[in-house]
């Protein structure tokens, strides 16, 4: 029986990433990364958040709003397998799915009242670009959601080792002090596609209103430029 359901966006995420390039590949990989969840006016009701401050982590149910397609494919090419091996779409976390829905576990850093947006949620470790629509929030329950002996299939361990990050001091000065640690964490995760290994290529991505350009050679990521974002 074919059915369709209508879902409402309850909030949007404010983060340092204007595009998907540079966003950590999974939530929790860069705990220092901060973002804010801003509720839509209809859902700016403090009663809906009563008791939430007692949880350290949350599940966010959100939409791959920049990866929507009319048709779906039963197989996709996971980047961590080099982009050359096809796996079943339901065996991956690919954004190209029948329904572009995603799930992320994030740290709740605080519940804060603001003049502009009402009550917002301060998050850490989110893998979400700026403007991501959120459909629902659920508390993370350690006794039910943590399964220590679970198997991870072909994605059982993080993809590759963390890179050494080299940022010249004069370039680092262009980054606000409260963003420097999280930027290093993002770069250490190697933002490049897994199948690209050209040491002479310079990559770039937006971060907190800046354009960060870098290259990678011999396990070292070197920042080449940090420019004001356009």
**Uncertain regions spanning at least 5 consecutive residues:** none
From N to C, what is the helix and strand string? EEEEEEEEHEHHEEE
- The chain-level structural class is mainly beta
CATH architecture of the largest domain: Beta Barrel
Strand order of the largest sheet: 1-2-7-6-3-8
Overall spatial form: globular
Largest sheet, in brief, is:
6 strands, antiparallel, barrel
CATH class of the largest domain: Mainly Beta
Tally the helices: what do you get? 3
Terminal CA distance reads 48 Å
What proportion strand?
25-35%
Based on DSSP secondary structure assignment, what is the total number of beta strands?
12
Description:
9% of the residues lie in helices and 32% in strands. The protein has three helices and twelve strands. The longest helix is centred in the C-terminal third of the chain and has 12 residues, at 177-188. It is mainly β. It is globular. A hairpin with a 3-residue loop joins strand 6 and strand 7 (118-124). It has two domains: 11-65 and 100-150, Beta Barrel (Elongation Factor Tu (Ef-tu), domain 3), CATH 2.40.30; 162-228, 2-Layer Sandwich (YaeB-like fold). The strands form three sheets. The chain has a six-stranded antiparallel barrel with strand order 1-2-7-6-3-8.
Task: Describe the secondary structure blueprint for this structure.
Elements: E1 11-14, E2 34-39, E3 57-63, E4 75-76, E5 87-88, E6 101-114, E7 118-124, E8 133-139, H1 142-145, E9 164-166, H2 169-172, H3 177-188, E10 203-207, E11 210-217, E12 220-228
Parallel strand pairs: 9-12
Antiparallel strand pairs: 1-2, 1-8, 2-7, 3-6, 3-8, 4-5, 6-7, 10-11, 11-12
């Amino acid at each position: 029986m074919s059915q369709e359901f209508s879902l409402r966006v309850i909030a949007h995420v404010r983060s340092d990433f204007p595009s998907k390039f540079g966003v950590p590949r999974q939530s929790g990989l860069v705990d220092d990364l901060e973002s804010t969840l801003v509720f839509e006016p209809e859902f700016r009701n403090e009663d809906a958040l009563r008791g939430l401050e007692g949880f350290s982590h949350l599940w966010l149910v959100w939409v791959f709003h920049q990866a929507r397609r009319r048709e779906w494919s039963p197989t996709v090419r996971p980047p961590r397998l080099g982009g050359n091996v096809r796996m079943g779409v339901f065996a991956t976390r690919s954004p190209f799915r029948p329904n572009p829905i995603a799930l992320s576990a994030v740290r709740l850093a605080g519940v804060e009242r603001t003049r502009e947006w009402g009550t917002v949620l301060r998050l850490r470790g989110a893998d979400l670009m700026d403007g991501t629509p959120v459909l629902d929030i659920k508390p993370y329950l350690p006794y039910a959601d943590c399964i220590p002996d679970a198997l991870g299939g072909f994605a059982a361990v993080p993809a590759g080792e963390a890179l050494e990050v080299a940022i010249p001091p004069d370039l680092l000065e262009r980054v606000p002090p409260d963003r420097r640690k999280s930027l290093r964490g993002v770069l250490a995760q190697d933002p490049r596609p897994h199948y690209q290994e050209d040491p002479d290529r310079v990559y770039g991505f937006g971060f907190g209103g800046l354009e960060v350009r870098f290259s990678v050679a011999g396990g070292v990521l070197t920042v080449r430029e940090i420019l004001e974002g356009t």
